């Protein structure tokens, strides 16, 4: 897993666009998943993480898209 992009949503929230990649057991091909996570911060620590199926859904939930 790696954060492909971090978007500042407001004073206490960040949207992370995450790429997760792996290979199925016994298979030679790779699979990749991109998802969005809205992280709520307090005192420099993550207090809450909301996971969304797509980055666009996470950006919309954070009020960055309609």
Strand content: over 45%
Specify the oligomeric state: single chain
Radius of gyration from the CA trace? 14 Å
Profile the largest sheet. Answer: 4 strands, antiparallel
- Strands of the widest sheet, in order across it, are 1-2-3-4
The proportion of residues forming helix, as a percent range, comes to: 10-25%
Number of domains: 1
Order of helices and strands: EEEEH
What's the rounded overall pLDDT mean?
A: 93
In the predicted model, the low-confidence regions spanning at least 5 consecutive residues are: none
Number of helices: 1
**What is the rounded distance between the termini?**
27 Å
Task: Based on Cα principal axes, name the global outline.
Answer: elongated
How many strands in all? 4
Content-based structural category: mainly beta
Textual characterization of the structure:
By secondary structure, the chain is mainly β. Helix content is 11%, strand content 62%. It contains one helix and four strands. It has one helix at residues 55-61, and strands spanning 2-10, 13-23, 30-42, 45-52. It has a four-stranded antiparallel β-sheet with strand order 1-2-3-4, with helices on one face. Strand 2 (13-23) and strand 3 form a beta hairpin. The protein is elongated, with a radius of gyration of 14 Å. The model has no long low-confidence stretch (mean pLDDT 93).
């Amino acid at each position: 897993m790696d954060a492909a992009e971090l978007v500042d949503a407001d004073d206490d929230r960040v949207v992370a666009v995450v790429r997760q990649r792996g290979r199925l057991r016994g298979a030679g091909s790779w699979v990749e998943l991109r998802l969005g996570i809205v992280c709520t911060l307090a005192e420099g620590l993550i207090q809450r993480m909301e996971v969304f199926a797509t980055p666009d859904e996470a950006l919309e939930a954070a009020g960055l898209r309609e």
